[in-house]
Design brief:
Elements (H helix, E strand, L loop, with lengths): L6 E4 L2 E4 L5 H8 L8 E5 L5 H12 L5 H5 L2 H4 L8 H7 L6 E4 L3 H8 L5 E6 L2 H14 L9 H10 L7 H9 L7 E6 H6 L1 H11 L6 H10 L2 H5 L36 H15 L7 H20 L1
Parallel strand pairs: 3-4, 3-5, 5-6
Antiparallel strand pairs: 1-2
Helix pairs in contact: 2-12, 11-12
The structure holds adenosine-3'-5'-diphosphate.
Length: 306
């Protein structure tokens, strides 16, 4: 399935026509979840592939055999993509591990009443937009991005593929009441303390690990291991679909790369939009604390300079 220039509009959100059809999207909303399912949810570029790898490794007690021999999309397929049912049917995995980028207002009803374990991964949206921008350049199934300032505006307006980051994060974080079993974890937590994050996730999945198993998980889902693992670095995807000459999927894997891309003006504008859109969000995020620390340091610098 190529359909590289096709876009599917679904409930006001655009999805790449490559891998998504109206039927596959409609079917996703009616998916009969089992209580034993594990669902990884994220807005794109938030650490989805990383979480898929972590969950695979935890489920296999740190043994990398599966993650080094089966592509991530076959181990934890995307619910809304057209090949989903076929992959799930042929998957021996119990519990089933499913991935989705769908927002809560679309998928919530299918999850209602289910005890499926949902892991929601979020990431500082400034790093998300930078990562997404670079990804648009290499992914031939996404529109060629204009300049970064224009791309940034589209991100803030929520008109890029998969819709608004703000609606996505708020939708899933305000749903502790209607999703029975939800773990919210950030890319930043995984970056700053991968070992701690793995322990948190394994305990949430009720899949306890001994220290040696935690260490092997850490080793195999580090950025450098994953960058060289063709089952997760997307180099198996044909050049016409992902132009590997224009960039790599496992790009930098860092917190704060946005600082190399944003101007001071863009940063201030982003902060204003963020503040107004996130004021009704009940969760506090690691990057908000970092922002406060930064502005505190700035205030102190200003005092020292005066
Ligand atoms: P960058 O483009 O900033 O490098 P997703 O899987 O949701 O599309 O997210 C992709 C982003 O996660 C990319 O970010 C990628 O490099 C990063 N990533 C994937 N695996 C990682 C790991 N093990 N450690 C750190 N970052 C990782």
């Amino acid at each position: 399935m190529a359909r590289l220039d096709v876009t599917e509009m679904f409930h006001g959100i655009s999805f790449p026509g490559h891998l998504h059809t109206q039927d596959s999207l409609k079917l996703a909303l009616k998916f009969p979840f089992r209580d034993s399912d594990i669902l990884i949810v994220s807005y794109p570029k938030s650490g989805t592939t990383w979480m898929q790898e972590i969950v695979s490794l935890i489920s296999n007690k740190g043994d990398p055999h599966v993650s080094q021999n089966t592509p991530n999309w076959a181990r934890s397929p995307w619910l809304e993509q057209y090949y989903f049912a076929a992959v799930l049917d042929s998957s021996p995995s119990t519990p089933r591990v499913i991935t989705t980028h769908l927002p809560h207002h679309l998928l919530g009803p299918a999850l209602q009443g289910s005890k499926a374990k949902v892991i929601y991964v979020s990431r500082n949206p400034k790093d998300v937009v930078v990562s997404f921008y670079h990804f648009h350049k290499m992914a031939n199934f996404l529109p060629e991005p204009d300049t970064f300032p224009e791309f940034l505006n589209q991100f803030l307006e929520g008109t890029l593929s998969y819709g608004s980051w703000f609606d996505h994060v708020k939708g899933w974080s305000d749903q502790t009441a209607s999703v029975n079993c939800l773990l919210h974890i950030t890319y930043e937590e995984m970056s700053l303390d991968l070992c701690g994050a793995i322990k948190r996730i394994s305990s949430f999945l009720q899949c306890p690990l001994v220290e040696d198993e935690v260490s092997t998980c850490v080793k195999h889902c580090s950025f450098s291991s994953m960058k060289h693992n063709k089952m997760v670095n997307y180099t198996l995807v044909a050049q016409e679909i992902m132009d590997h000459g224009k960039g790599s999927f496992m790009r930098k894997g860092k917190i704060g790369d946005w600082k190399n891309m944003f101007t001071e003006e863009q940063n201030q504008y982003f902060n204003c939009v963020y503040k107004s859109k996130m004021q009704d969000c009940t969760l506090r995020f690691v990057w908000e604390e970092q922002k406060e620390e930064e502005s505190h340091v700035k205030d102190l610098n200003a005092v020292e300079e005066s």
